[in-house]
Amino acid sequence: MPSTATASSYSITMRLHTPPDQGIVGAVATAIAAAGGVVTGIDVVESSPTRLRLDVTCSASDGDHALLLQQAVAALGGVEVHKVSDRTFLLHLGGKIEVTSKVPLKTRDDLSMAYTPGVGRVSMAIYEHPEDVSRLTIKGNSVAVVTDGSAVLGLGNLGPGAALPVMEGKAALFKRFANIDAWPICLASQDTEEIIKAVEMIAPGFGGINLEDIAAPRCFEIEQRLRASLDIPVFHDDQHGTAIVVVAALTNALRVVEKEMTRARVVVAGAGAAGTAIVTLLIAAGVTDVVVYDRAGCLVPDLPNLGPAQQQLAEVTNPRRVTGGLHEALRGADVFIGVSAPGVLDAEWIRDMADRSIVFALANPDPEVDPVEAAKYAEVVASGRSDYPNQINNVLAFPGVFRGLLDARAREITVDMLLRAARAIADVVRDEELNPSFIIPSVFHPDVPGAVAAAVRGD
């Protein structure tokens, strides 16, 4: 039986043909439970004197486990597994987003105002007063979600087609949490110059650019140059969205353990896009002692074979010049933040951290350390997963950030905006709610997007 928890992302519905036996439903449920699955629904689709048709919905831990559940049911006497549907794939059929008109198009008058000839008057007005384009078009509420498919989730370089479902999901989240119209833009190039040129060419139609799933170190240059060349905000969510939510969660975690941000010793595992942005924002928030650990070891300026981004990190971190591996870095540390790879942190090493330690294991879907094991030694544990307390999820940040930017007609994003957004998220958790298992609000908390938007606007 699989030892990992079941997940709705591996939910299947089995269409079963069975004898009209009153005990068959119980037998099916028992077989699934014995195989480690969780039954979430059993529906009788058709009943006759000779046969039942059942739809059985259940959750598995992964694809192999889902197959095991099918086999367990098929092994029951008289039960035929007629068809199996993967509910996640069904949800994606035909895509997850669509374009709808905000105005009625039912009469000749409707067409003459929404399209020709009336639309020509609006075009001329924008030509004469370019500053009105955001007010008179979708530009004022639109974001381009741009990727080259080079770093899709934790899956790697899958290319633009395979990245499209993720970008659609991002667009759906923009709409759901901030009522922003976002458009998935998947580019058929992983060349830095071509990506920059493509984004510059489409920018007139958007109020903001959200870069997504672009591999480091290329993402750093792309973001930096686009911020310099465009008059709309450019936000790399894998960097800055993650950093905002991490700083928000850490703010509240430090409150729980009664420590100060300025005195906390922090270890960050991972010097990629997320790690770099987290370190940058932590320093801006007042952290003075950060050690960055990557494959080469603890970063110090004279460590050989560092890339430009790693070298920059080494120059501004590790004031005590800690060397060696992750275990050495953790000795006496107050906080561990992992944005690296599964299993790099041995739970036993947490014993060597400072008392009342904090562990954020954010590699997804498999974290740096099992959160259950980490909780045996650390006082506060967070992860990127939804099946454990304290989920660090970017959706807490990016919808509200862009809502605030679009409302303010902002031309750029500042570090001060990022810090204000982090503080806004942290403040949603009331004093009476704060505890080691609740340091960050739910992604569905209704106050989060508005609070973040207000903070970014500077209200």
Give your account of this protein's structure:
- There is one protein chain.
- The mean pLDDT is 91.
- The protein has a 6-stranded mixed beta sheet. The protein has a 4-stranded antiparallel beta sheet with strand order 2-3-1-4. A 4-stranded parallel beta sheet has the order 6-5-7-8, with helices on both faces.
- The longest helix is centred in the middle third of the chain and has 21 residues.
- Helix 15 packs across helix 17 and helix 16 packs antiparallel against helix 17.
- The protein contains 17 helices and 14 strands.
- Helix 11 links the parallel strand 9 and strand 10.
- The protein is 39% helix and 18% strand.
- With 459 residues, the protein is α/β, with parallel strands linked by helices.
Q: Number of helical runs? A: 17
Q: Give the N-to-C terminal Cα separation.
A: 53 Å
Spatial order of strands in the largest sheet = 11-10-9-12-13-14
Strand content: 15-25%
> What Rg, in angstroms, do the CA atoms define?
25 Å
Q: Helix/strand/pairing class, anyone?
A: alpha/beta
